[in-house]
Prior knowledge:
Elements lengths: L6 H20 L15 E4 L2 E4 L4 E7 L2 E6 L5 H9 L8 E3 L2 E5 L5 H39 L4 H34 L2
Antiparallel strand pairs: 1-2, 3-4, 4-6, 5-6
Helix pairs in contact: 1-3, 1-4, 3-4
Amino acid sequence: MSEGIDLKELKRRMDGAITAYKSDIASLRTGRASANVLDPVQVEAYGSRVPLNQVANISVPEPRMLSVSVWDKGMVGAVERGIRESNLGLNPIIDGQNLRIPLPELNEERRRSLVKVAHDYAEKAKVAIRHVRRDGMDDLKKAEKDGSIGQDLSRAQSEKVQKMTDETISDVDRLLAEKEREIMQV
Length: 186
């Protein structure tokens, strides 16, 4: 008889879903400036499309302003074009090799749509976590059917997997509630 399934591996995969979710919601724009807002921006550079952070530094000098310092002076126009075409609703102001990007005030409708996007991201994370749980439960059933673990161990581990799943999903809900408060804060 073996010791059952690898609970640490399941926990690692569930934590991976949380990490991906945190990354997704970090790119959502709230009332405050965050360098993560520009994460999805792609720039035409040297014959290919590259992420903005590979051609410039992004900083937050003021609560409602982003600053982008382009490394190559010839890339300033391409960076500006990339930001305008990213559908983020941002209008950069060129200042030499730097771009200043004032963040407009979010209206109520835009805030509500951002909350919906955050909920969609949360649902994707929960689905990923449930897939991990399903994989674990399938492995337990298979091991029990093969006779490599007993019924008692299988039941005990399935309860642990369910508890781990519930805790991870509650973490997603907590992060979602925090992000929702942050977005709706005027």
